[in-house]
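Hello forum,

I keep getting stuck at the same step: I have a sequence, I want structure tokens, and every attempt I make locally crashes halfway through. Rather than fight my setup again tonight, could one of you with a working pipeline run this one for me? It's a single chain of 61 residues.
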Amino acid sequence: MDRFILLMLASILSGFALLRLPLSGTFLEGISPVTDVIGIITVLLFSLFLIYKGLRALLTN
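Reply #2:
Ran it on my machine without issues. Output:
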């Protein structure tokens, strides 16, 4: 279970990395809005999942 939680935290960090990714001045500049949306969705999804798992662990014990 600990590896699963660490995987979720790594996913949140990768979402933040996508948000901070500098694409200006490269040929990938056109997909910058897409990477921002994917980063925001990734951070929100995995953060909400970790909050859910934490609340569930607190309420069941």
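The longest helix spans residues 32-60. If your local run keeps crashing, start a new thread with the error log.
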